[in-house]
Request: fold
Amino acid sequence: MQRAAFFSGGDAQMAAGDLGELLVPYMPTIRVPKSGDRVYKTECAFSYDSPESEGGLYVCMNTFLGFGREHIERHYRKTGQCVYLHLKRRVIEKVPGASGGALPKRRNAKLFLDLETNSDPNNDDFEYEDEAKLVIFPDHYEILLPNIEELPALVTIACDALLSAKSPYRKQDPDSWEEELQASKHAKTLVQLDNGVRIPPSGWKCSKCDLRENLWLNLTDGSVLCGKWFFDGSGGNGHAMEHYKETGYPLAVKLGTITPDGADVYSFDEEEPVLDPHIAKHLAHFGIDMLQMQVTENGLRDNDIKPRVSEWEVIQEAGVKLKPMYGPGYTGMKNLGNSCYLNAVMQAIFSIPEFQRAYVGNLPRIFDYSPLDPTQDFNTQMAKLGHGLLSGQYSKPPMKSELIEQVMKEEHKPQHNGISPRMFKAFISKGHPEFSSNRQQDAQEFFLHLINLVERNPVGSENPSDVFRFLVEERTQCCQSRKVRYTERVDYIMQLPVAMEAATNKDELIAYELKRREAEAARRPPPELVRAKIPFSACLQAFSEPNNVEDFWSSALQAKSAGVKTSRFASFPEYLVVQIKKFTFGLDWIPKKLDVSVDMPDFLDISHLRARGLQPGEEELPDIAPPIIIPDDAKALDIDESSVMQLAEMGFPLEACRKAVYYTGNLGAEVAFNWIIAHMEEPDFAEPLVIPAFGEVASSGAAVFGAVGLDNQPPEEMVAIIISMGFQRNLAIQALKATNNNLERALEWIFSHPELEEETEPALDMMDMENNANANILAETGSEGPRIKDGSGRYELFGFISHMGTSTMSGHYVCHLKKEGRWVIYNDLRVCASERPPKDLGYIYFYHRIPS
Reply:
């Protein structure tokens, strides 16, 4: 492409006037970034190009979106915007000085005050040479910056504001999603006292008040002190902060969060959580070996677990020399701070041909028809991520010839090793209270969240998520009348319970537990871990067995009765996702994990679980809804006190807990907890529960018993709960009406009906006419039928996601995928050929149907 002119501050005097005249026609399109504007100066909206890429990054001076060299023309043609700020960062090897060290030689340092890239700006071996220039399209006029005297004042102010703008991924306000953690300014130069302090593997307590929870290790002097007090009554007495005010020692790590992959570090000086790139060295100063740290049940960690049985070492294949893999399909993903759950799921998703075709195969069309702000478009960001993983552009092996050339030219060209999914995570988690945070999350929940977004954002004629979609037939039987009801629902995951009672090494488990308790009582290191060995056949059997239905109301008896429910496959999906239900809740309502080994098969046949429908001799339950029950007073209402106490123990007011359990129909503490979160700011939040009068019961009393309200409108409290989860009001009302105000079934109904999110009021009225126990089935099996890909029930394993740690709230995820006949491990940025794939320790398994 021809360049018409090039201007710089050192050109002839005529250039000054020319610059002003050159920019005059474009002045109305040049904006100064305001406080609410997001400036994307580190990453292209369509690719993972950055200022460090060969072509640099072009930032639009009107929209502040960034574009790589390959995509800038598309934005110019679509918007007509002509003026862009071109950013380029070169990585230069430092010149050794006379003393053998490197001479600092940074140029244009003030141009990029807040430029966040994948490189470490504190690297001792390299320095950065930054360049910025204005580029005017379509003739590619270039104006080298700084040119303060020659440029119009507005342009100078706009350029300065753009260059100093904060990252768009930083938290804008207390309610917005969180940014990825930044490295502390104290990490590299932290001074650690040589005072002989050694931290034991367990048994910690605050040195000032003897508290044994929420403890922080000061990384300067090794003091162990308690953290601040929290609103729910947990926390500590703030002795760690007091110590900082007395000494000025800035960094502390939370004991109980140290794993082989990192730890929670807080900077008192910077007043925020931070990253410590040198955390392993800082912990080793006090005798803590990160690679041997393992979570224990009380949140502490000990380093006495033998490496050969620790799930951290086994799952990550530590101790084995693994061969790095490069090229298309072997691209790693940067961990943004507990984002490994996202990395593992997306690697598995884009190993599936249907997703590859839908997004990467349609990439030109998706990009060409993307909205003006492609950073806020789901399909654009999916296509961008898929191309980044599959193109091989960001997974290139180092070449010897390039290394020799770099040495000769004293220039370092960093290899594009992996991608950083900042923009993808920012969009896909926007508005979600969990995924928008920096906390660890459940990969299974994120998988369903992703599928929900895929359903809501169709691309092309086929929906790629259909490959996971299957119908479940649920058979409910009244134990007294023996009559049955058959219903169907849509699902995407087969959840298998862990049959602990079927463990094949029970004697070893009993002996281990006795030794563990003895060691705990004597405060000795625990014995070598013994993991329960569970046959897969036992888990499959547990899945197929009948389950008791709590509070079952029999329409045949017109009364409550004992009921059982069994589940079968009404259809088999193209890709079967199997979750081993390792996570459960403890008495403290904290998720915990069953550390078990399940012998997952490479080939799976579940044909025997095919649904058969109503059988000869079976009689169906009458299609009659339960009656509306109006309690005379609060005492007549049966409130689940165990759920109330679980919530109260978390620090919430007792009356608020009673209201939460009441208004969510005794569906359990988890559902009631969501109600509390949605209503905490209300002025009467902690006021005593008042049962509505007869005329008011439709808004709340109906919610208690799952009955239909007097005016056929769902209870407002239940509507509010669903809205608080991010769904629209119309959809919440429609789901509740379709399921007789059963909150759990309503949520399932929503996930199985994404196409109905924008239903109009007339459609809601039509649903009122069809409101019965099977309304969800009728809606699902409309004229076109459910979107399923039924076929054989025989499958082959091609991938699995494993979790390390004791709960979904902590730990690390890794993905193993079978590609080109061999297993490959995807551990964030690290992609290697797997030598010992730990198929027995997985959490989520991916199977592909074997063609008949």
User: Anything to note?
Assistant: The chain has 24 helices and 31 strands.
